[in-house]
User: Which sequence fits this backbone?
């Protein structure tokens, strides 16, 4: 029993069976055996033994007890361990172990011009490179250029070079976005670095911004204390919340201010003024200052019955 090597998945292959030795002496080669298809048993990944699928008979390869055996694509269709057993009458049993790998893996190791599992010194392949970025993000162009150079220094293999190319493109994209953001920031602060508060004379947080003419530039909003004091003066010293609110005054009566009553009052005032009334000459003030005023008083006596 010995490991014979790797076989390519689902690929026909010729293998060498042996050595077949005499079961009595344990050392003499058995060169005249007839090894049929049914004599060659296969186990795939430790499963039950079954005859090989390929139908040909194994042929002796010289006189040293070795025989050529053909396996077809079905015999090699399962990735993993393949065990082959042959026990012919008069000879000791033979067991061979192989490992079947996927086509791409086999070709990478044994295909034409394959570099094999170990590459030539100084090269890298199929390596995923992860860049670690510090918490301190530098936005100046010189530092970004240096970072790109560090990434370039890692690229010594084809796949890493491709990864670097992608990373390099992303750095360029980030560089452009930072430049755009800086340009937008310059529009807010000015190229001289002045802050918004000093560059904009009317900028002040939590203040009323004046109009174009600046009419509200000196506006000083009242404080709560000032507002409370003003309302106290309006209410008066004896103001009561139960009797002196506008609602309480309205509900207290003392007059009927409906629209009908207002019309009556208007009619009486019209009668008092007269049809020829002129406000600038016939008002009570004007009449009181006039020397020629004749007042006629009409009295009506009402006697009770």
Assistant:
């Amino acid at each position: 029993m010995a490991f014979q090597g790797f076989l390519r998945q689902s690929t026909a292959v010729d293998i060498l069976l042996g050595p077949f030795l005499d079961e009595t002496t344990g050392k003499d080669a058995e060169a005249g055996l007839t090894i049929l298809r049914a004599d060659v048993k296969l186990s795939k990944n430790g499963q039950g033994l079954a005859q090989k699928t390929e139908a040909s008979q194994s042929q002796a390869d010289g006189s040293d007890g070795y025989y050529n055996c053909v396996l077809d694509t079905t015999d090699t269709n399962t990735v993993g361990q393949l065990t082959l057993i042959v026990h012919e009458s008069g000879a000791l049993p033979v067991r061979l172990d192989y490992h079947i790998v996927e086509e791409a893996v086999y070709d990478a190791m044994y295909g034409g011009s394959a570099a094999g599992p170990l590459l030539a010194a100084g090269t890298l392949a199929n390596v995923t490179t992860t860049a670690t970025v510090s918490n301190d993000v530098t936005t100046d162009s010189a530092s970004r250029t240096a970072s790109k150079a560090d990434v370039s220094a890692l690229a010594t293999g084809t796949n890493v070079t491709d990864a670097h190319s992608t990373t390099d493109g992303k750095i360029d994209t980030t560089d452009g976005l930072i430049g755009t953001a800086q340009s937008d920031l310059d529009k807010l602060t000015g190229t001289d670095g002045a802050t918004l508060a000093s560059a904009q004379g009317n900028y002040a947080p939590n203040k009323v911004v004046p109009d174009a003419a600046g009419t509200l530039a000196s506006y000083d909003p009242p404080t709560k204390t000032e507002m409370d004091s003003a309302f106290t003066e309006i209410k008066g010293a004896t103001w009561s919340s139960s009797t002196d609110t506008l609602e309480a005054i309205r509900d207290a009566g003392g007059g009927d201010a409906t629209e009908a009553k207002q019309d009556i009052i208007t009619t009486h005032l019209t009668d008092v003024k007269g049809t020829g009334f002129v406000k600038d000459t016939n008002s009570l003030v004007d009449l009181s200052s006039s020397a020629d005023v004749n007042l006629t008083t009409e009295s009506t006596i009402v006697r009770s019955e």
Observations:
- The chain has three domains: 2-104, 140-208, 222-273.
